[in-house]
Design brief:
By secondary structure, this protein is of the alpha+beta class. It is built from 16 helices and 15 strands. The longest helix is centred in the C-terminal third of the chain and has 21 residues. It starts with 6 loop residues before the first helix and ends in a 5-residue tail after the last helix. It folds into 3 domains: about 80 residues, no CATH class; about 160 residues, Trna Endonuclease, Chain: A, domain 1, CATH 3.40.1350; about 160 residues, Arc Repressor Mutant, subunit A (Orthogonal Bundle). The strands form 4 sheets. Strands 5, 6, 7, 8, 10, 11, 12 and 13 form an 8-stranded mixed sheet that branches. A 3-stranded antiparallel sheet has the order 1-3-2. A two-stranded antiparallel ribbon has the order 4-9.
Length: about 425
Amino acid sequence: MSSKVTNNESWNNIFHKFDIINEIKKNDFYDITSNDIKSVDGKEARLMTKIDFRKNLPFIMRRNGLSILAIKNGTYRIAKNDPFIDIPKLDEAKIQYLNNNLSSFITLNPMNIKSESGALDVASATGMLKKVFDEKNLFLGIRGRLRGSLNFSIGDIDYDVDGVQIEVDGGYEGEQTFNIVEAKIGYEDNINIRQLIYPELYWKNIIGIQKKVKSYIFYYENQSIYRFIPFIYDGLNYYANSKEEIAFKFKTKEDFDLMSIKCSISLIDKTAPIPQADDFSKLIDMMINIERETIQSDSIPTKISIFLNFNFDNRQADYYFNALKWLRLANWDKKEEKVYLTGLGKEILSIDNSERMEELAKIVFSEPLYNHVLKYGDKKIPKKLIDDWGLNETTFRRRLLTIRSWVRYFKKFFQIDI
């Protein structure tokens, strides 16, 4: 079967072959196996069912209010419910500022984090976790994958789970509590409870009443903020308890003058389209993912393997990969859909976060249009700056949204009034 069949098209074919909509109307759910999924278009079930966020839902499920969750090794239940919880944006009043007490360490640098486990190790070594969990003594008890059994319900649909892979990013035991953390690099406004309920219920079955089991969503956000949001599941309701969120950030000495950056067109790649990628922090997160996958698999990662880690559809992925190319941080072989960091991209990732942001700002605002919006706003932009990119009015207005967003991002980082 052609690899050009998209996941959405393949799910449409699967639903048609097995008459899934009508089966759910009759039985409230439909159980499908990995072999069933692969038999239609030859796609691997583990990729087809990786749905960490609402936007990853196939169109046919989204249109019909359906979701899919694993119930056995190689078996998935499709039902009419919403197993996602909303995550609000950070309330910056919740941030607690810390001194960097790890400055003498070589192997653990809180100013250059490239993985969820690294961010959690920093949070542990600096005492963040003790504050979040309200425990004086903690140790890392578990991390990684296992298989187990548990059961829960969403509305009227029961999930009797047996032998499903359960992954824990960090499980920390204290004197009174056992605390499970689901970690993500970057911000998403929702998350699938699959990543939270399964480990929590599994460990509740193991621990019983000996200690209280608690779960947390951890976002390492904007390469500088450590967010911990309690996850609540009481057997009926499930939600992120944002009122009890705790966030941390290390104090930094900022003496970089953002507004003094001068134009130098040679710093960007004019063969790439001017960016349409509003969330600059995702570009950094993508670079980290490219580097990590390159190291872990010892091969050049594909576009799909990277954007599956983000809340992207295919078009958005193209926009963000083009933005990395525009910045000369990554290259993208469109024919083979391979992505890789440039020498500059590798160098940018090797330095501390503050220095990294300075170097990125110098690249972004070397471009005259971006430089003008940074210094003078977007009310009276010289026509030549727009014409240099060959943009019509409609396209320019869309690109201007990205420019504004990037200006806000850098001004916020360097603490300049917006």
